[in-house]
Amino acid sequence: MADPFQNVDAAGPEFIKIFADSMDVRQSDPAMEQIVATYLGKLSLSDDSTLIEVGAGAGAVARRIAAHADPAQVVAYDPSAGFIEEAKARARDHANLRFEVADGAALPRDDASTDVVIMHTVLTHVVDPRALITEAVRVLRSGGTLIACDADFSKATFAHFPNDPLDACAREFVRSFVTDPYLVGKLRGLLSGAGLGLEFFDVQSRVVTTPQQMRPWVEMTANAMQERGEIGPGLAQALIAEHERRAEAGVLYGYQAFATAIARKPG
After folding, report:
1. What are the backbone dihedrals phi and psi of residue 105, each rounded to the nearest 5 degrees, phi first?
2. Is residue 141, in this structure, part of any structural domain at all?
3. 3-state SS class at 260
4. Model pTM?
5. CATH number of the domain within which 100 lies
6. What is the pLDDT of residues 168-187, one digit of tens each?
7. Domain total in the chain
8. Cα torsion angle, 46, 149, 183, 57, sign
9. What's the mean pLDDT in 213-238?
10. 29 is a domain residue
11. In this structure, are residues 62 and 96 in contact, taking their beta carbons and an 8 Å threshold?
12. Residue 222 lies in a domain
């Protein structure tokens, strides 16, 4: 299946709203807050620094960037007009942040005009990550910084035991909503191949234990498999019910690994 994040507007307003809310929930997770705080804390910024986020979605991370960098200016780009409208509505308290519709491979910016480019959970959803990295190099000033943070979706799991049926929802989410689940393993090579110097690379675990974090994966994938005729309504409902049972019992468990790479443009 095609990753709907490649063309969010075609997926429709319901998809946009669901995932805008889901991104806010995910980013509010303490593990994700720490991941973002760690890479932002490694930046050396001045009041006149210019930062951009590529593939900002509905702005969950862009708001954190703007709060950290204030009063430096932050511009967040996403190719989805629907996501950008959601992002603007959710970021009214950040005067140093603006959102624009733009493709990450064709940014409306001059060469060498940007101090920091951030790509947070973007490269796993594009067909050609090299194009976005090359464009980031173009807009970065000499000595500018690229931060790429993404999930190693190849490691995502909900399994409690061998052949756990609920784990099918994790695997189905990756199959349906991720373009390259193995991107993280290629990330350092992509950055060095673009002429960037790697300064930091780390992988952090994210353990998912609340229904707010896991339910969208389970509900959307179970319902989608039913709609495609791959499973019947009884099994779809049973998967959702098993999620609810584990949530009520306090035993929900999901696992993701998030990698952060920080690289610098020579000069």
Report:
1. -90, 0
2. yes
3. strand
4. 0.93
5. 3.40.50.150
6. 999 999 999 999 999 999 99
7. 1
8. negative
9. 94
10. yes
11. no
12. no
